[in-house]
């Protein structure tokens, strides 16, 4: 029986040094996209490893396609981090003052003066936010040249697999993948839910691809490449940690990863002619590159790569969840916005008649507040144009000195997309100076929904910012 089932032999000795010196290195889409999530110094070290391996790197056509399709989304997601940090700092400032005020130290204690603490923290926070603003200016923008993309295209020039020839070829793969999924045969069967969260299918080059079969497309293209090219050793690097790629066994209560699924090892040997098939997560790949390729990837880089892999498990809301939020009734949104408004106006009144959802009083100003849910770039356009016409040429609307528009996006991701579109717009809004606007999103903490402000268009730039909002919705 010895040697009959090598794919299950976890104790077999492999000549890793030989494998690493001869193997074809294949990278998954998530590994390439992670380069946008790392600090620039980390990305440079990983790119240097790619460059050192240049004669032996390769990616399936579907990996290249998914990279190009998702690159802009990842860049947009990275922009949200600045907003998240900024919000956390502001919330911390506010919470510190609120909690100190609750102690009523001015009335109850003659020695404790919290003012130096509050002022000191405020100064520190402002300095940090100034620095954050400068860093944000350096963040890759959607409409700028992308040196990282250009570098990857250069490295993988001539090292991308062939595209499917026609729809019949892909339909045949879809039928095979469907059968494999029913049997939970790897890879990709854990992605069946992509149909449920709105990622169903997409078209490229006149061919329709099913998103849930993406992993199988990649796997099939690897095997189709290795057999005719007589590739005997493959090292596949992926940041996908699901059990439809990895062989995981519970040991002492916690799952232990033993390596690639035995079915993949066997299929690579039988179909692809690959005698040695290894898989690594990005941090494991870099760590072993130090050993077998004499690279010098630092521990700091390894730590960041691990951290990014861990954070990636917290995905943005699925399209199904976002759709449900977009379809929320205004009655569901009003209490969320009301809680937020209580911290920004002196007095707030519900307003059941007329054009406003709330009326607020700040000093001697009467503010009419309009809440607009279901905010996405397309659905908002006609409504925003209508509001432009309503306020144009007026000093007041329904006796309100200011019209404050509160736009509620279904998630932070959607708010980021809208704001990014604003930055590149130049559509004229009009001459009215009574408009104010806030863009926010529905967040969830400990099972409770609440409204969180993402960007405010007030003061001197209110009109210009609202003009941008109108244009951004049009894209």
Summarize the structure.
By secondary structure, the protein is of the alpha/beta class. Among the domains are: 14-77 and 143-151 and 228-315, no CATH class; 320-474.
Give a structural overview:
Among the domains are: 161 residues, no CATH class; 155 residues. Helices cover 47% and strands 17% of the residues. It is built from 17 helices and 14 strands. Helix 15 runs antiparallel to helix 17. The chain is elongated. The C terminus is likely disordered.
List keywords for this structure.
four-stranded parallel sheet, 47% helix, disordered C terminus, six-stranded mixed sheet, 475 residues, alpha/beta, elongated
Tally of strands: 14
Structural class: alpha/beta
Identify low-pLDDT runs.
314-318, 424-432, 458-475
Strand order, sheet with most strands:
9-10-11-12-13-14
- Give the count of helical stretches: 17
Radius of gyration: 27 Å
Helix content: 40-55%
Roughly what is the average pLDDT, rounded to an integer? 78
Shape label: elongated
- Amount of beta strand: 15-25%
**Gap from first CA to last CA:** 64 Å
Sheet having the most strands: 6 strands, mixed
Give the SSE layout.
Blueprint: H1 16-22, E1 24-27, H2 29-34, H3 40-52, E2 57-58, H4 61-103, H5 105-108, H6 115-138, H7 147-155, H8 167-182, E3 201-204, E4 207-210, H9 214-226, E5 233-237, E6 246-251, E7 254-260, H10 262-270, E8 276-280, H11 282-292, H12 299-311, H13 319-326, H14 330-341, E9 347-350, E10 358-362, E11 365-372, H15 380-391, E12 402-409, H16 412-423, E13 435-445, E14 448-457, H17 462-474
Parallel strand pairs: 1-2, 1-5, 5-8, 11-12, 12-13
Antiparallel strand pairs: 3-4, 6-7, 9-10, 10-11, 13-14
